[in-house]
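From the shared-data thread, chain only:
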Amino acid sequence: MVKLGNVCTVVSGTTPKSNHLEYWDGNINWVTPAELKDDSDIIFESQRKITEKAVADTSMKPFPAGTVLLSSRAPIGKVAIAGVEMYCNQGFKNLICSEAIYNRYLYHYLKSKTDYLNSLGRGATFKEISKNIVESIEIPLPPINEQRKIAAVLDKVSDLIAKRRQQLDKLDELVKSRFVEMFGDPIINSMHWMEELIGDSCFVTKLAGFEYTQYIHYGDSGDVVMVKAQNVKNGKLNRKDLSYISNEVSNSLPRSQLAAGDVVMTYVGANIGDVAVIDDEYKYHLAPNVAKIRPDAEKYNSVYFMYMLMFLNSYVVGNSADTAKAALGMERIRKLKIFTPPIGLQEQFAAFVAQVDKSKFAIQKSLQKLKMLKSALMQEYFR
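Structure, as tokens:
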């Protein structure tokens, strides 16, 4: 084991004064922790740019291509590699590797230690890891050729994981393309289907605030699953971190009970406009910030209806004056205009979605196995 300070030079950065306009919108890369993404390992270009005057006036020091970027606050533990020379703000403790340590080996090591890095955070207002803390981190350091071999294996598994995610994204795009092919542009109703408002033939409701405060008490187990905003994502019910209530409580609030075929939609919050169709796997009940829409089964297939809402909500929320504060109240949902193709055509689309879902399920299983393999390899290499 060696300390990082013995094999790396740890450097940070600074932020030019924001009120000096001459410091900004130049052509020099200046990266922030928010730009480090889990699905991207190399950063070639920053979102914001600074000018040569900013560099000169603040005595900022660049770090070279190949430097391992490590966010040291807000949040701690995001990792990437600089693809070009760049500068950064003070939210980093970056590592310029010596000849003794391979940067991609260090990158994978740090990626495997997110929880450990967060445990090293210090500070009352917000947690941060200091330069001294980073320099004192001990890391297993096999010979450089062995480091390269380890990194190559982890790179290969990471590439396979990325490809599986890309396959899932492409299947999602395929379904959306098929929708437009069958029904036209839902924003302008390019195929001139009969139109109506959601409230004309759908029951739209939510769990009232007083009902939640007076009657709802979450449990870690129970008879009925509460569908919270975090459980509604990209057309699917996310069954992580579920909360439960009893049958007795759910039956006392029948208006907000959910049935198979209901469509749920988040109407406020960070993931506003996300939708999903309720299945028959569990008993479900509405939680706050989620609306229930029960389509007329003679007019609408629930899967078709959900995808229609996906298109409409992306347009409505995306065109709000302030998307951070956007909200879709019940009356606004009821007044959304939808179109009504023949039910047989809707069911053809739903059958197509079911076939795509089968393909996605197989890819998701493969993806999960690859994630488990990568985790096992990291434990073996970095224990």
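The two ends are 11 Å apart (CA to CA).
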